[in-house]
Fold these 2 entries.
Entry 1:
Amino acid sequence: MSIDKKTVEYMAHLARINLGDKELEKLSTQLDSILDFIDTLKKVSIEGVPPTSHALPINNVLREDSLAASLPAEKTFSNAPSRKNNFFTVPKVIE
Amino acid sequence: MNLYSLTAHELNELFKAKRAKPQEAIDSLNSRIEEVEGKVKAYVRVNHRSQIDVKGVPVTITDNICTENLFTECCSKILEGFKPPYDATVIRKLKDAGTTIFDLKTNMDEFAFGSSTENSCFGPTRNPWNTSCVPGGSSGGSAACVAADEAIWALGSDTGGSIRQPASFCGVVGLKPTYGRVSRYGLIAFASSLDQIGPITKDVEDSALLTNIISGFDPMDSTSANIPVPDYTKSLGIDIKGIKIGIPKEYFVQGLDPEVKILAHEAIAKLKSLGADYKEVSLPHTEYAVPVYYIIATAEASSNLARFDGVQYGFRTKGKIQNLIEMYKETRGEGFGEEAKRRIILGTFALSHGYYDAYYLRALKVRTLIKQDFDKVFKEFDCIVTPTSPTTAFKISEKAEDPLEMYLSDIYTISANLAGIPAISIPCGFTKDNLPVGLQILAKPFAEEKLFTVAHAYEQNAGWYKIKPKL
Amino acid sequence: MSYEVVIGLEVHLQLKTRTKAFCGCSTEFGAEPNSQVCPVCLGFPGSLPVFNLTALDYGIKVALALNCTIQEHTKFDRKNYFYPDLPKAYQISQYDLPLSKNGHIDVELKQGPKRVGITRVHMEEDAGKLIHQDDYSCVDYNRTGIPLLEIVSEPDIRSPEEAYQYLVTLKSIIAYLDVSDCDMEKGSLRCDANISLRPAGQIELGTKTELKNLNSFKAVKDALNFEIMRQTQALDGGVKILQETRLWDEKVQQTISMRTKEGAQDYRYFPEPDLPEIKITQEKINEVKSSLPELPHEKMLRFTKEYGLSVYDAGILVYSKADASYAEECMKAYFSKDKKAVANWFNGALLSEANARNSSLSGLKVAAANLIELIGYVDREEISNLTAKVVLTEMIDTKKTAGTIIKEKSLIQISDTGALDKIARQIIEENPKSVADFKTGKNNALMFLVGQVMRKSGGKANPKVVQEVLKGRLTNA
């Protein structure tokens, strides 16, 4: 077994996704078989192999420190689910 | 003659000769959509039409490329109602080139997560060749509308085959350019290190034309390559005599549909008859491409999709919530579809404490090996030819309940994204059931010209592009 | 039991680039909420970051000034967590290949210099601002994406006072580089502190707490002092220290536990795929190195050598770059080889004027030549120190030169023995009790009489001469 229900539940929490009981059950089974399949990677010898996180060998792409236009408020807020004056608003933050 | 059935280069000729007007092309497409869209369902929000600036050849865009003031929702409830306040760089380039951005966007798997266009909050798209089959995915809507003549040409996005596999299933031409060839600015990211925007067209010439327009360095995309863009139409009509083609043995193994295999071999024989040399080659790490991909792509996706949290745009839960964390969880729980949740959670797992080395880091290393396989072959060969997909279009809902089975349908297309190389899919015939089959040609980074040369030579000789689905 | 205090500081520094780290929005402080935002810093879907080369240059500058080794190969990583002030739900930061590592700074303490190690200096982006209301919170993204440096010290600091001096020194160095406003009130410099106690002699570190909400250097010191007391009491009472984050409450002068969250955070760091890696060549490093100004520590050493100042005096003079160059200008203009007098003026009268006016020393705008002219009057004993201070105040207020003021108010002191003797005689007559006291050996009495003579002369008498004259009269009488 590669992943259990508890771990999936924790991952869902980290990802801030509510899962119903049935959903969690199903997802756990599916992820377990997907991870079993992914575990075939364990067969590959990776000793001394560097990781590739970028497909192209590009370096040092930088921009000049020059001002560009910011968005006007009507565009900034045009999609906002909740707004008060010139602020986005969210429900009370309590951890 | 119906304008909707034309290619972009044909339409351009008519415009130039003043034998047709851009508005007529739009009208023609609209009448075609009226006629067949009910069967194909390639577009989303068909009842929400917007005013558009009609200039030249209309181009159709997938729902994950930002178009100013047009819905761009990635076919996901979580982006419900999102109209970006900006254009993607490719859209800006298309506008600058005098094309018309068509106001309807095409259907896709939610956030490009899928290979069938079934994972869309708007429902599935159907394959114009057989409407009980999927069009492939994720850019299935774009491939289907081009095949069904509901579009002149279209853009899609390709993270693991999402342009090529639907192009193959729908009998059209789909190109995934080299990573960095086309700006990703404004493409709503799935997996940043793999995503590329590319053209889905009726023929290779249109593919070259559209690639000309959208390619090039973009100061807004740090990962776009600052390498000059050649005129790709100059690669067309060139003799392929002496071109060296590698045929990877790992692509012709168990799981490959026998009919697809035969058609691919016939295509290779045709290329030989046109003067190409071919030889069997090996890409030994091919079998690891799918598992590597499903770690890297989901890991990046889990981070890229974290921003959809109901704060600044898109959907926010209407349910009763006490505090912020509940708002996050409810919004994301309701807003994402099943496959999106599956991938986000898988990707979160691959990056999480205690699993990072075993999954994510290992996948990055195997990615290096896959890339090296290609480097080696391209030292000796101009291109590699394979089937695009191991099968033809499958039935709707046939694989919907088995994600792993679905993932394996990208087995031949994923490696190009991992290696960052360009690849094109062109039609190479039909099965007995009259479903199209695609041939994939791959080349080394920034060697799109080679792809166009070989693809065009084959296409013009084989003539499959003349056959259209009956709708 | 006696405990050793172990402190490490994490400083976040906003770089004063014109634009944000990854987009062209302005970094100006105090704008309308959400007016300096764009699709990139708002994390709108499809937007992509492009790094600001000035931010990189500033980062390299700071790292070199803190004696760090610049990494030839550096990259950005994503730090993933959900919070409304973080629009992408990840912060672009650096994880395993930071800009630089292994530096140090030398901090001058009363007991002598101390070297504090710098673990790393890395680049990242700032988050937005949350304003909490009763039942909801407002988000302003103007600050989001401003380039930050995180400067992490080694746990080398052993007392709140050392922590304070470390911050003063660090701020001074950064101000010399002119890459940040270093203004804690505006949040351009922020500090978190890690503190643990261990029984004296023990090698193993104790459990640490992380202190946040430290809004001034003084708050850092106060919070650390409080935490030492709290942890000492806990340890003495056999209570285990919890590894936790505690907030400093300025009002009640206490650190307060932030209720512990669900275990440790899992930030799922991974390489930022949207940003190519950065290679920093030796050439580039040399180029930046040669552009660095003389830094406070070097300047301090030079001042002690060139001008014969004490480490203490030089240390105060070099704190601010502008003040140091002002002081140096004055020392150069000063005719005597012994520059101590100038240092005394700077760390004495000039400093009190500056403090009283809430200004810097150079901000008083007393030209070097004018100050030296004033010091000359004192050196030549033409005016007293006391008078000189009055003249200085007037110089600052009226922008007149010392000479003009002294002339206008005829402040040249009376050193003429004959003239002073007259006054002295009078004072002796008027104060028989003090005279008697002096004769019984009470030295204070002499000082009193000197003061009386000074008063009578309208402050113009040369106190040295007065003293001599008085002494002569009293002992001979």
Entry 2:
Amino acid sequence: MDSLRSKIVPVSTILAGIVVLWYVFAVVLNAPFQRDLDRRAGETPTTMEFVVRTLAQKKPTLPAPHQVAQNFFENTFLRKVTSARSLVYHSWATLSSTLLGFTFGTILGIVIAVGIVHVTTLDKSLMPWIIASQTIPILAVAPMIIVVLAAVGITGLIPKALISTYLSFFPVAVGMVKGLRSPELMHLDLMHTYNASRAQIFWKLRVPASVPFLFASMKVAVAASLVGAIVGELPTGAVAGIGAKLLAGAYYSQTIDIWAALVAGSVVAALLVAAVGLASRIVERAMGGRPA
Amino acid sequence: MTARLKPSWQAALALLLVVIALVLGAMTQPEADAFASPAAGVAYPYLGTKSVILGLIGLAALGSMLRLRPLAEALVLFVGAHGAAWLLLAGIGGFEGTAKAPYYCALTAAWLLGWRCVAVLSSMRPAERWERLALNLVVPALFGAWLLILWEAVVRGAGIPFILLPPPSAIGARIVNSLPILGEDVRQTIFKAVLVGYVVGCAAGFVVAILADRFLFLRRGLIPIGNLVSALPIIGVAPIMVMWFGFDWQSKAAVVIIMTFFPMLVNTVAGLAASSHMERDLMRTYASSYWQTLFKLRLPAAGPFIFNALKINSTLALIGAIVAEFFGTPVVGMGFRISTEVGRMNIDMVWAEIAVAALAGSVFYGVVALLERAATFWHPSIRGG
């Protein structure tokens, strides 16, 4: 009951407000073109008819929510998943490279973090460059990486996954460095009194302590690698994937398609973040954590 | 005698590599050809410098094993590693793609010495503040320099095609030669699209966060949505914005506004909750109004969070503007240049643009970080408590 009052009601009110605003904007933004159409057809519709027509254009400036929902539903559930028009097909293309890049990125981030925590030289020399590496707008470089790798003969999943890797290793590395250093001095001293070796301290103290940090940063990383995969699809000549769908929509002014692809991307993002959250809860429970 | 020596694995390995390089002989293919037919008089690189390079590495490696003071040891290593690397790079000019195993042995040995140098420097614990600061700058700088040296040496030694990966020296030359074009692109992308979008987006996020703070209902409704939206691939709205606002910088600024809005909103709301009950109770006992509490206690306390958002947004803004240019621009701008020069296979121009973007991103981030130090000087992470 409490969550209904403190969460569901406010969220749904705001969402409803957004939908209403969206309809208003759709009418306002589509009106000039509709007026133009009516003048050419020599019609003088009533206000009500006019509004309905603005919400039913084929290539509207801003498609109405129900148009997007209809397009999304058609392309998700009513088409065969192997069809090139199916959003499931495109989402899968994006999802597979996202997952591959995310896996690489997480492993790379963990390896870097372990190195930084254990080797002073790396801590001093590598950390500033890891931070600097993220000021490079890698997404801007994505097309070049794709084109250059294609010139060498590497195409398909790997180039897209590389971009996702680059975007996702950073949050994991930074979070894991924090996590591996999170055990307090007292706990480290206790391990010393047990005469624990470095490896034992690592496996029995540092790794368990870093798990919450790992999952928190993995949530950020998975969203980042999805963005990487989508942008990585832009220069492949619109073959497959949500990014390709966006680009094709932009070329042919298929606004409804663009919005449906955006919705699909958002659904994938929400699913990915939810999956990481679920994994985190399962691992925490397995490690004996209690819900706070 | 052994007590006077202080061997390190990097120096030992470097010595071993020097010996291997000497045993294997010719550094490059032309040198091997010249030895095979001495009469032909084939020109080859490292005619006189080969012994200097290997000698320099060997001496530096041996010297570093003596019980020197750390600074002297670092200096010996620095001269040995970078002298050898410089001679290697200077010698390969004109003979790209002919390097043989000893070339890479010498390169690896020099790199190991460089690593040892960084290791010695980073284990130093100077007492003076400025010395620590200098060390914190020199160590990453050396690391970056070695990244460039290895890139240059491998690309030129192995003769990797220019299309695939140009050497840093070529990229540097390209930057110097096309400064006007780069300047024009920076003006279009950064000074128009990024700055306008960044300022408007952050300001809007901030204002909405204050509103959400004032009205509990709004906060409860907006924060879950904001958290969800920050995980979404917002960059996808770029084509829509280009359709709505045209090809010029306004559409890019719109993308930047949308991308920077939500991180600012979420972080500011989190920051406004950062002041403790005790402090807020104190403000109540002073009978201060909502706005007085906000400006004198809660906004300053939210400073670290707000600056965190500003930092995140500085890179997001750059990405947003550049990617939005892929969907259509006037014939100027960093994203436009990158996508067209890739098509024309002018990879060095692309890299030049990337270098400029990285520089701009770092400067942007650095300015925000400096502002943060000035504005939240009281915070433990900056006081260095």
